[in-house]
Write a structure and sequence with these properties.
The protein has nine helices and two strands. It has 192 residues and is mainly alpha-helical. Strand 1 and strand 2 form a beta hairpin. Helix 1 packs across helix 2 (32-54).
Length: 192
């Protein structure tokens, strides 16, 4: 997105939008205009993330508002050396949506204390879709070792972060990340 900028050779030319990381730095310094511009540029994308999790546009809108409140309070915590600004913002929106889902009691309890807040079986996917893609995914999940299947489902179905997953599995975060990466690569190769 470009906006009209200062005169260039007697004409008004486009001005490139500042990078998200620069906007976050400005927000950390209390710049409300930077927060407004960040909202204009990212709210739609963050709404999509929240709505995917919550499946309710009103709740997703609430999650986006919560996310931007968190951004205004925590912008100084963003470190461009650790990752992209868009990913950081997406994570904040994801956590805001998950917090709303948890408050509304949408987690499925299980009797297994080792798993925590949800079933870790591929049958959960059967109820979501019975098409061929769902069958391929279920079959691929069944080919995984139990620990791999549990990790993938806890991370991607129940929304646990790497840190939460590491705590749950009593493994270092780096090991959890590496294991998930290898498992996802294996899943990708097994799907048509």
């Amino acid at each position: 997105m470009h906006r009209s900028g200062p005169l260039e050779n007697g004409r008004i030319g486009p001005v490139a939008e500042p990078p998200l990381s620069d906007l976050l730095a400005a927000v950390a310094g209390g710049d409300q205009d930077a927060l407004r511009l960040l909202y204009e540029r990212q709210a739609r994308r963050l709404f999509g993330i929240a709505n995917t999790i919550l499946r309710d546009p009103d709740l997703a809108a609430d999650a986006v508002q919560d996310a931007f409140l968190r951004v205004s309070q925590r912008a100084a915590q963003f470190d461009p050396a650790r990752g992209e600004a868009a990913a950081w913002l997406g994570g904040i929106a994801r956590y805001a949506a998950l917090d709303i889902a948890r408050r509304r009691g949408r987690e499925v309890p299980t009797d297994d204390p080792a798993l925590g807040d949800g079933p870790a079986e591929p049958e959960a996917f059967e109820n979501a879709a019975n098409g061929q893609a769902a069958r391929h995914l279920r079959d691929s999940l069944l080919m995984l070792e139990e620990s791999q299947r549990v990790s993938v489902l806890l991370a991607f179905v129940h929304g646990l972060s790497h840190a939460q997953l590491a705590e749950r599995l009593k493994l270092p975060v780096g090991t959890v990340k590496a294991n998930l990466r290898r498992t996802l690569d294996r899943l990708r190769k097994s799907l048509p």
